[in-house]
Design goal:
alpha/beta, about 375 residues, 8-stranded mixed beta sheet, disordered C terminus
Length: about 375
């Protein structure tokens, strides 16, 4: 991300652009109800750049205010107000964890608080949301939030899979409205397990993270309110390709919005370029196998100001699209239209509208599935 193209990042904490970027992300969450701009500005004014503790303390205090406000609202029967406050509390707790590591007890406390607010939100959602446990590795079940559509039939469903270190609670403000308005059921899942994330370092070091996604598919396929022929998956960021690896190895997915293995390609070619400086980059065989193994419709979204070079991604996608049987869509967002940062953090609404419109079209929302699978 170039600082000259995002002026506020060059003036707000120039030595801590991780926190500056996080602040801009929590501001952007306001348009989906994940924060309030006035609260964000008030909170940021009490934080010292030199102290990670003050960052954590300030955002945690704001989160607690919202949670209390939500609890008072539900006591008085004001469900909509309560839900709004719980969603903001979740996002403020998430923001508080930015400078911390999962091993830090404060990070784990924030995750527990997020889950408590999420539980309240799900209990008062209509239809009522479920907290589900999904078997994965023997002593590490995944935790998910299932939000059923209003359809009386088996519904098309989207798995919203959190990247390593990302909490599923973040998706309650980002994805639920987008899915519900389009008649989709949603299952939000992350890799933190039932343990609030204290084993995250051990888990993300595993070479088989993609098996988590297949385990989620196994779970959904057994539900009697899910159309198993119309299950899609959405990766909530492009910082790894484990979701793409899962889609490539598991033919049950009807659609996928993820990086398509591009991140793995990028890392492999970067390392190869440093080792063989005089040779042009090529598509590594293993990564090519992953990308070419995705047979269902694939959407890749990209921001002009993100980490990956748009031209290089376009070249890779063009090469993969040479096979006429492939259904691959590349949508990149320019700086002038916003949603151009890494993960579309500057305008997540714009990107999510496009992503969920695409998913709804590929999962044929409003139509009953045929007996044959899409992929």
């Amino acid at each position: 991300m170039s600082t000259h193209s995002i002026p506020i990042l060059s003036t707000l904490w120039p030595e801590r652009q991780d926190l500056a970027s996080e602040f801009m992300a929590i501001l952007a969450a306001a348009q989906e109800g994940g924060s309030m701009i006035a609260e964000c500005m008030s909170t940021i004014g009490s934080i010292s750049e030199a102290s990670d503790d003050s960052w954590y303390d300030a955002w945690t205090a704001t989160a607690k205010i919202n949670r209390v406000r939500g609890n008072l609202a539900i006591r008085d029967g004001n469900i909509a107000t309560a839900q709004s406050n719980w969603l903001r509390a979740i996002n403020y707790h998430r923001t508080a964890t930015q400078p911390l590591l999962p091993e830090d007890e404060r990070w784990q406390a924030s995750v527990r608080s997020m889950r408590a607010c999420a539980s309240d939100f799900l209990r008062h959602h209509s239809p009522v949301g479920e907290i589900v446990s999904i078997p994965w590795i023997c002593d590490y079940p995944l935790q998910g939030y299932f939000l059923r559509s209003n359809s009386p039939h088996r519904a098309p469903t989207v798995i919203c899979m959190g990247e390593p270190g990302r909490a599923k609670e973040d998706g309650l403000s980002r994805f639920v409205r987008q899915g519900v308005e389009r008649g989709l059921s949603l299952l939000l899942v992350d890799l933190l397990g039932d343990t609030a994330g204290f084993r995250l370092g051990e888990i993300i070091a595993r070479p088989d993270l993609e098996t988590a996604v297949s385990s989620v598919m196994d779970y959904l396929s057994e539900r009697d309110d899910v159309d198993e022929q119309r299950i899609g998956v959405l990766s909530d960021a492009c910082s790894s390709s484990f979701v793409a690896r899962a889609v490539a190895s598991d033919g049950r997915f009807a659609a996928a919005a993820c990086d398509g293995g591009i991140w793995d390609i990028h890392e492999t070619q970067f390392l190869a370029a440093r080792r063989f400086a005089n040779q042009p980059p090529s598509l590594p065989l293993e990564v090519s196998r992953i990308a070419r193994g995705i047979r269902c419709p694939l959407l890749i979204t990209l921001g002009e100001l993100g980490w990956l070079k748009v031209n290089r991604v376009a070249e890779i996608v063009h090469g993969l699209s040479a096979d006429a049987r492939r259904d691959i869509t590349l949508r990149y967002f320019t700086a002038s239209e916003t949603a151009a940062w890494q993960g579309h953090a500057d305008n997540p609404t714009l990107a999510n509208e496009y992503i969920f419109d695409w998913l709804a079209s590929k999962l044929r929302v409003g139509k009953r599935a045929s007996k044959s699978r899409k992929c």
